[in-house]
Write a structure and sequence with these properties.
Elements: H1 8-27, H2 30-67, H3 72-91, H4 98-130, H5 136-152, H6 154-160, H7 162-173, H8 175-200
């Protein structure tokens, strides 16, 4: 198998980069800091190149849809909007172009809000399923959620007074905060372990495929 297709090459590069960034994080050496900053700048450039490749693939996919007469209107709309936004952004890199501003204010923001409005239906359905009391865990979830809702609604604050507000604040500041900190600690440990696996060449999931 060709040397350029062997899996050891990307694993070695990934390990070196992760090692440099870890050393920079914990040592503070100026030379290592300069190398780490350069590598991170390269990562930004590569991310931009990946976005460009993604845009090209998107256009190719929409062209194939048009040629096969599938979803023609949607495909044409996607291509036109992509090219218009690209052209308006290239003309004015400060994104103050009137065309760009008009599209963002009158199309993107409205569609974004409409998308969230549709998602609320799925959210409410998910809440309905989550609040069905089937065991002790779901019972505590239901009780805590109801108390937070009562605490947040002004009408219930007037009816029930300060106790409901104090109880809701306690739930947010004690059990909720403890759970959030536990999630953050577990996530941080997971990130550290993942970095160590990449550094040691044990993590290969980010590669497209394993080639012997």
């Amino acid at each position: 198998m060709s040397l350029m297709r062997r899996i050891e090459i990307p694993l070695t590069i990934s390990g070196i980069i992760v090692g440099i960034i870890l050393i920079d994080t914990f040592s503070g050496d100026k030379t290592v800091r300069a190398i780490s900053t350069t590598l991170q700048s390269w990562a930004i450039i590569l991310a931009g190149a990946a976005m460009g490749i993604g845009a090209i693939n998107l256009i190719r996919r929409q062209i194939r849809n048009i040629q096969s007469k599938r979803m023609i209107v949607r495909s044409v709309g996607i291509i036109v909007l992509l090219l218009v936004m690209l052209a308006s952004g290239v003309v004015d890199l400060n994104l103050q172009n009137p065309v760009y501003t008009f599209i963002v204010n009158n199309f993107y923001s409205k569609i974004y809000g409409a998308g969230w409005a549709f998602q609320y239906f799925f959210l409410y359905y998910g809440l309905y399923r989550a609040y069905r009391v089937r065991n002790v865990d779901s019972l505590f979830l239901f009780i805590g959620s109801v108390l937070i809702i009562l605490k947040s609604a002004a009408i219930f604050q007037v009816i029930m007074g300060d106790p409901i507000v104090m109880l809701g604040d306690w739930i947010l500041s004690v059990p909720n905060l403890a759970g959030n900190r536990a999630i953050i600690i577990a996530s941080s440990l997971g990130i550290v372990l993942l970095g160590l696996r990449v550094l040691l060449g044990k993590e290969r999931g980010f590669l497209r495929r394993e080639v012997g």
